[in-house]
Design goal:
single chain; about 210 residues; mainly beta; Immunoglobulin-like; 4-stranded mixed sheet; 4-stranded antiparallel sheet; 5 helices; 15 strands; globular; disordered N terminus
Length: about 210
């Protein structure tokens, strides 16, 4: 088959046909993995363990992109995994997999949304640092984050037992800095560059409807 024929078949979605691919997996039915951070060992090196089988996330689909967001607005990050359908005939019956995180909902958290003025609208490239009684955390607003995937622009900080963020600092791409103090946990803080901070309660989501959504 000529190179042109290959390209034409790919463009029309016929390159990965059932005759060529069948229901076989391109990755040999390898199981997805999910690593838990176990902290540092005695040498100060990070340790991780694969907990996918224990949590039921060791799928054997042809998983590709992965993104995190708080889909059910309960204050922790959920995971959505896209699946390669292989060809157009299979696309309608291959749906993304939503992995809901219901483990950390009893702990405290703070969600942050940024709106740039001199910087770009979404605050991409901004650094957000928080300080609580338990220590300091830093996160960044990024574009992308995984193969063919876009992470949520909303930042989440796990606060454990802390009920208050003592200080929050936003370092914008423009070079400006905004600082705020004494922010209560379990809410969304929306910060406008140079324009202050607003607080919101995340709207509740019908989690049962999420299970039946397609």
């Amino acid at each position: 088959m000529s190179a042109v024929a290959h390209i034409n078949q790919y463009k029309t979605g016929l390159f990965y046909t059932d005759e060529f691919r069948g229901d076989n997996s391109w990755n040999g039915y390898e199981h997805n993995v999910l690593f838990r951070n176990e902290g540092l060992d005695e040498n100060g090196l990070p340790q991780f363990s694969n907990v996918a089988m224990a949590l039921g996330t060791d799928d054997i689909k042809d998983s590709r992109g992965v993104a995190t967001a708080d889909f059910d607005n309960d204050g922790d990050m959920d995971i959505v995994v896209s699946t390669n359908p292989g060809d157009l005939k299979r696309a309608a019956r291959v749906t993304p997999t939503l992995l809901r995180n219901n483990i950390g909902t009893s702990r405290n958290w703070l969600a942050i949304e940024l709106q740039g003025v001199e910087s770009n609208r979404d605050g991409i490239g901004a650094e957000v640092a928080i300080e609580t009684a338990e220590g300091r955390q830093i996160s960044h607003v990024t574009a992308g984050g995984a193969y063919a995937s876009q992470q949520s622009m909303r930042l989440y900080f796990g606060l454990n037992e802390a009920i208050m963020v003592n200080k929050l600092t936003v370092s914008w791409p423009s070079g400006k800095t905004d600082q705020f103090e004494d922010i209560s946990a379990k809410q969304l803080a929306r910060i406008t560059e140079g324009g202050g901070i607003e607080y919101f309660t995340l709207p509740s989501v019908d989690k049962q409807s999420m299970l039946s959504a397609r």
